[in-house]
Recover the amino acids of this structure.
């Protein structure tokens, strides 16, 4: 039930981003062409990239919610990581395009920027709209642990800063009459875009390479295992990774030779339930191993653990 509710929440948030970016692209493009401002046009390009990214995010959250099938036994979660990586590439491309246009303006001369009042209004309104939408997207991303929505929120949050920067630049041109401020602001916008693209690359792309879960999440697993320390000998070969919002966790658990298969299975079920409670969307696999015996502490340790499990009644 929770998964279905979260999937619906993600789709609604992604749809809102598509609608918002569509409106802003049209407004910025009209304003940029009317004013001749390269910084406003650069913002139109930025919003166009955000629109493409929002479309990718909408598609990815829709697909990632599908259950596992014969071809995708681990589910479709990584499509969100792929989407985030594609979005990062698009942001890099937009940044290079903006710098290219701004440098061309600096070389050929800066034409007078007109319609400063309209441009300032559009940029100020864009900053406010993107702030509100990005805050909502980030809230949903945290709630649903969605990489794609987090990426989309980062795009829009960058757009907030860049739109506000252009807004300040247009005000400065109005009071100083120095047109060169316009392409300079555009270059600053591009640098901020590069920073956002790199942060997004670290968030989305590296999880495709199956990096482990963050240290704080693995610490939760170790804490849970310590709570069951009297019911097993040891655990090892802990492996973690993330696919979209799904965490994959597996480990080997060494238990006393005296316990039954049923007791070992019940123990692993309890551990898996506790981990999933603390780390939602977790898929956990625990491989039970019998204590091999032969070590100096085996004769004393295994019976103690077995006695403790008997006392707890497998609870």
């Amino acid at each position: 039930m929770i998964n279905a509710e979260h999937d619906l929440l993600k789709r609604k948030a992604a749809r809102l981003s598509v609608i918002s970016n569509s409106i802003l692209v049209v407004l910025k493009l009209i304003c940029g062409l009317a004013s001749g401002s390269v910084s406003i046009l650069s913002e139109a390009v930025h919003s166009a990239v955000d629109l493409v990214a929002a479309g990718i995010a909408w598609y990815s959250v829709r697909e990632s919610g599908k259950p596992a099938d014969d071809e995708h036994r681990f589910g479709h979660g990584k499509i969100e990581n792929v989407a985030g990586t594609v979005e990062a590439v698009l942001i890099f491309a937009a940044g290079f395009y903006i710098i290219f246009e701004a440098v061309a303006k600096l070389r050929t001369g800066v034409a007078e920027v007109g319609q400063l009042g309209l441009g300032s209004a559009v940029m100020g309104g864009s900053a406010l709209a993107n702030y509100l939408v990005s805050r909502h997207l980030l809230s949903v991303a945290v709630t649903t642990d969605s990489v794609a929505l987090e990426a989309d929120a980062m795009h829009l949050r960058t757009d907030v800063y860049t739109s506000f920067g252009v807004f300040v630049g247009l005000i400065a041109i109005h009071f100083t009459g120095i047109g060169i401020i316009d392409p300079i602001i555009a270059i600053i916008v591009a640098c901020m875009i590069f920073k956002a693209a790199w942060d997004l690359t670290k968030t989305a792309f590296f999880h495709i390479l199956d990096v482990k879960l963050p240290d704080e999440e693995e610490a939760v697993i170790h804490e849970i295992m310590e709570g069951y320390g009297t019911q097993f000998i040891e655990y090892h070969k802990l492996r973690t990774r993330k696919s979209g919002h799904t965490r994959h966790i597996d480990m080997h658990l060494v238990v006393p030779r005296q316990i039954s298969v049923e007791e070992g299975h019940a123990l692993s079920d309890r551990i898996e339930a506790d981990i999933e409670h603390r780390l939602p969307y977790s898929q956990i696999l625990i491989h039970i191993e019998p204590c091999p015996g032969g070590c100096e502490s085996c004769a004393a340790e295994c019976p103690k653990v077995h006695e403790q499990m008997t006392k707890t009644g497998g609870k």
Summary: The chain has a mean pLDDT of 78. The chain is about 70% helix and 10% strand.
